[in-house]
Every structure is written in C-alpha cells, then in structure tokens.
Amino acid sequence: MDAPVSNPAASVAENPPPGFRPINFSRDGTRADFNTHVGTLYGKRGEKGTPDAFVMGFRVQPHMCNPVGGLHGGMMMTVADLVAGMGTNVHTGLRRFLPTVNMTFDFVAPARVGDWVEGRCEVVRVTRNLAFAHIFLTVGERRILRASSIMKVPSDPAAGRAPPAKS
Amino acid sequence: MTEDPLFRPPAGFVQVTSSGGFSTHNGPYWERPAEGRVVRGFHALPRHANALGIVHGGMLTAFLDSTMGVAVHRLVHSRSVTIRLVADFLSPGRVGDWLQAEAELIGVDEGVAHIRASLSGPRHLVMTGQGSFALLRTGRPVRYPKPRPATAAPLSDSA
C-alpha cells in the first residue's frame, strides 16, 4: 500500500516544478517518520554525473517556519542532511545508509512561505570509511544554505541499505 | 498527533509554549530553569525517527539550534539568527528516549554570540554542537556577561 506522501499540514499550493515527484519515505506505508512529518519533500533525478543527478525540493509551508515567518533553520538542516545522504548515494552508486558524523551549516540567506527550495550536493571524496560532501540549498539562483557533511560509510554493505527513495 | 498520554517529563521540566509553525509541528519541548545556561528536552516519538528507527539528525540539529537560540535570548538578552552551526553526531537517540540539551554562552561581542551545546540521552552523549548567532538590533543595548575562562571546563553531564 502506498502511503499518503502529501503532508496534510501543507496549506500553500505545492505546485512542484516539472520533474519533481513526492518522495515516499515510509517503508511499510503506515509510519509517519520525520521526513514525512516535516514535508512534503520532492525529488528529481537528472543526468548522471551532473549536479542535477539528484535534486531535492520542497515548497516552504507555514509548518516549516519560525515565529518571524521565515523558513526554520531546523528545516534547512534536515533537508541538507537528507540531500547529503541520498545525493551521495546517487552520485557514487553506493546504495548504503550513510549515518552523519559531522555537519556544518552556514545560513546565508532566509526563505519565505511559498518559496520553492532545492537542495543539491557535490561529493568531495569517498574513502573506505567516510564520505565528504558539500550541500547547497537554493531558492531560484539565490543560495540560502551552505553545508558540509561527513558521513560514515558502513563497512558491511548489507548492514544498512539506503531507504527507498521512490521519487 | 500521537502523543504518549503516560509520558511525564523529568522533575522540574515545564512545557514550553512554542510559537512558530516548525516548533509547534515538531514539539512539544520542555524546559527546566537553570542558572547561566539553558536546559531543554523533548520526548522522542515515532514522528521524529528516520527509516532506521533512530531520531533523525535533522530533528536533533533543529532542537539543538533552538536551544542555542534560546540561550542567546536568555544570556545576551537579544534576539538572534543562526549564521553558523557545527554538529557532531556521537551516538543515536532512540524513539522513547528523553533527549536533553544544554546550551551555554562561550563568547559575545556587539554583533555575534557564540554558544556551545550538548545533547544527551538516557545512556550517553548523543551530539555536541557549537553555533554562531548574529544579534538583531532591538533598540536595547546588549548586556555583556562575564566571558568564560580561557580553559573552559567541558559541559557538565546533563541527565
């Protein structure tokens, strides 16, 4: 059974740009995990070997905002964390769950309700144990968050399969 | 929201009246009054978890960030926005855990406050973080608290 991927908390029209499809994070279709709870999060696959090979996107909703009406830093960090893990998987073909070891976030600019935010990552290096990636969140041409991530590459390939990203 | 009706926070914690969509959507958060630092906690629920059933790094980071922001407000008496946050993930938090964050001021000038924070679960330290917060002008002069000594002791064990 397919879980309802659209977040009932959303009150602004989502209108994802062409190519973006909601990501279904729920494995068994019954559980609302954090990704589903804060979303709706969308994904787009582009040409392999380009920064667009994996793009995550979302429409800023009131339930993602701080009291001043700006996109909450916690939401930006959540998405950057996800883009790091899922993006690194797509860019490298690793297909593992990559637990985050360290992340550094620079909040460059705000975003407002109704903005369409996109996240892309660049893999800097993958070693036997660690993966290093850069992540940018953007609204149009404007960068709003710069992040750097260090992830652990599990030694046992079967230990943690990447969660299904049916975008 | 599926709350646990039997849940009671540790002694001294009161629920925070959160404002803002994100905090209301992901809370509730709890706070215990403390001198010179901010102590906050939340009860990890299934909606805070990722596909592995552990608390999502984004939730942990969001919670630590908000605790740090509150620390700026309480200790520097200024509203602020996060400009940089560094987070080290040491061990996972699990659904059902009481996760508690402590934040303290490590330095401030007229423009930026630096905060150090840690988050622990019932078993161990879950994450540590450091943040830089740009102070927003409010018309009130900023009060400068005494800086910490150069050889700052590690954060006291919460929990």
Which key terms come to mind for this protein?
heterodimer; A: 167 residues; alpha+beta; Thiol Ester Dehydrase, Chain A; 7-stranded antiparallel β-sheet; 2 helices; 31% strand; globular; B: 159 residues
Description:
- The complex is a heterodimer of chains A (167) and B (159).
- With 167 residues, chain A is of the alpha+beta class.
- Chain A is built from two helices and seven strands.
- Chain A has a single domain, classed as Roll (Thiol Ester Dehydrase, Chain A), CATH 3.10.129.
- In chain A, strand 6 (130-139) and strand 7 form a beta hairpin.
- In chain B, 16% of the residues lie in helices and 33% in strands.
- Chain B has a seven-stranded antiparallel sheet with strand order 1-2-3-5-6-7-4, with helices on one face.
- Chain B has 159 residues and is an alpha+beta fold.
- Chain B has one domain: Hotdog Thioesterase (Thiol Ester Dehydrase, Chain A, Roll).
- Strand 4 (100-107) of chain A pairs antiparallel with strand 4 of chain B, so a sheet runs across the interface.
**Judging from the principal axes of the Cα atoms, what is the shape of chain A?**
globular
Major β-sheet strand ordering of chain A: 1-2-3-5-6-7-4
Rounded mean pLDDT of chain B is: 84
Kindly report the CATH topology of chain B. Answer: Thiol Ester Dehydrase, Chain A
Order of helices and strands of chain B: EHEEHEEEE
The CATH superfamily title of chain A: Hotdog Thioesterase
Helix content of chain B: 10-25%
Tell me which oligomeric state these chains represent.
heterodimer
CATH topology descriptor of chain A = Thiol Ester Dehydrase, Chain A
Number of domains of chain B: 1
Low-confidence stretches of chain A: none
Task: Return the domain count of chain A.
Answer: 1
Give helix % range of chain A: 10-25%
Query: What is the CA-CA span between the terminal residues of chain A?
Result: 16 Å
Gyration radius over CA of chain B: 16 Å
H/E element sequence of chain A: EHEEHEEEE
CATH architecture of chain B: Roll
Class per helix and strand makeup of chain A: alpha+beta
Rg calculated over all Cα atoms of chain A = 15 Å
